[in-house]
Specification:
Layout: E1 3-13, E2 21-30, E3 33-38, E4 47-50, E5 54-58, E6 60-62, H1 83-94, H2 99-114, E7 118-125, H3 135-144, E8 147-154, H4 173-187, E9 199-202, H5 210-223, E10 227-231, H6 235-245, H7 249-255, E11 263-267, H8 273-282, E12 285-288, H9 290-295, H10 303-309, E13 313-315, H11 320-323, H12 328-343, H13 350-357, H14 359-364, E14 381-385, H15 397-403, E15 411-414, E16 417-421, E17 424-425, H16 430-448
Parallel strand pairs: 1-4, 1-5, 6-7, 7-8, 8-9, 10-11, 11-12, 12-13
Antiparallel strand pairs: 1-2, 2-3, 5-14, 14-15, 15-16, 16-17
Length: 449
Amino acid sequence: MASLLVKNADVLVTMDDQRGELAGADLFARDGVIIEVGQGLAHEADEIIDATNCVVTPGLVNTHHHLFQSLLRVVPGGQDALLFGWLQTLYPIFARMGPREIFASAQLGLAELALSGCTLSSDHLYMFPNGARLEDTIEAAKSIGIRFHPTRGSMSIGESKGGLPPDILVENEKDILEDCIRVVDAFHDPSEGAMIRVGLAPCSPFSVSTDLMRETALLARDKKVMLHTHLAENEEDISYSLEHFGCRPGEYAEQLGWLGDDVWHAHCVKLDAGEIDLFARTGTGVAHCPCSNCRLGSGIAPVRAMLDAGIKVGLGVDGSASNDSGHLLLEARQSLLLQRVQNGADAMSAREALAVATRQGAQVLGRPDCGQLVLGKRADLVVWPMDGIEAAGTWDPVAALILSGPFSPKHVFVEGRAIVRDQRLVNVDLKQIIDTNNHLSKLLAEGVA
């Protein structure tokens, strides 16, 4: 039975119901489960970590990503565009990708997340060109050792039918639903402590039909898996919904069965008060992507109002082509800063931002077994060093994680197993990943030129 003992943490942030923080604390885990948290623990263990001069937190949780975009950072033509124009710039590049690019890009994105303290990430893969499949991303996650929630996305309404994507990137709806069944049956693990859980995720209301949205929801409920899509991302999104469906995005989601505690929507920048109340009443979750929303000029999501209403809100780095970075602590900091710009300096505290990045993200993804360092939860944790220049002069090391930095974790554990040790990835060669992605990105750029 593999065991882990973390000793002498300056502060251990439990994220329990009382948001407890323990000074001079230890944590003991066996077989991926936290057995004890306290002071002066004397267990024998297979691995012992000295956390002196460190803060220990639950692993960060990423609730929205497009990992295939890690090959497409800072693409000319899309750098200064709004959402729809940005997508139309990138669609032709997406069409040139295949299994090799999808795997390599996902591996790069997940490596970057692990090195920023992320232990659980979702992914929204909504196009499958040239033989690509969802398992290309699953294999990438296994290579890193991160806990993973891939979603089988889809696009079915191309330009010829009034949709946004080119016809070459859309799929037949019957084929989409059949493959959804295949990947859920093959890879979804509903058990506590699962490393892989599959969700279903039509790309957006402007790239799939009403029938596919409705049928996907029915299938997800039959298979007992979660649902995910983009919703109310910017004003273009709202205008499209009003013009094509005669209602706002929240109302459209309600009509199609896309609300409930098994659903989370990405962005939700333009939810109005009625939609916020609707999400709160139904237990619907939100993936807040502050850096991407800034990058694309989409606006500031009403996160303060969502949290006050009781909505589950987690953080998402979104795709690297609309963020150009994948650091979840920086995402948490950006979320705090935006809420303060919009609502005042007391609108969000550093500890609340950290909770959104950990415990609440796990709740959004339907993982009550993750996101807390308490008895019986999974041993997903991060050891943050506080002896570097970014923390010098710090009075409050927990708040410093959000307000100072940027910090890089010293150690990252998933299911009690190290995936980052001494600030280096344990299971893969990072240089090889970087070299492969640079090579493939260059080939894609040459093809566009």
